[in-house]
Amino acid sequence: MQHSKTQSDSPIYFIISDQPDTCGYCGARLEFVESKEMEGEEVFVNECLCCKREILMVEN
Predict the structure, then answer these.
(1) Taking the domains of the chain in order of start, what are their residue ranges?
(2) Angle ∠(40,53,39) on CA atoms, nearest 5
């Protein structure tokens, strides 16, 4: 899983890969919450099953 950030005040987006989705912070599995459009792009909102962070993922 790769992650990218363009500005310090922008949300962090992780890029979806063919591997199982895991938290970029603690490595635990993710639970899909919803799909929505943010900044003109489809974003998949997930929740980490361990640290409970909101993980935003986009397709490459």
Answers:
(1) 7-58
(2) 10
- Write the CB contacts of 22 (distance below 8 Å, at least 6 apart in sequence): 1, 28, 29, 30
**C-alpha distances in angstroms, 49 versus 9, 18, 57?**
25, 20, 15
Q: How far apart are CA 28 and CA 51, in angstroms?
A: 8
Neighbouring C-beta atoms of residue 23, cutoff 10 Å: 20
pLDDT of 34-60, one tens digit each? 999 988 999 999 999 999 999 999 998
CA distance 33 to 39: 18
3-state secondary structure 1-60: CEEECCCCCCCCEEECCCCCCECCCCCCEEEEEEEEEECCEEEEEEEECCCCCEEEEECC
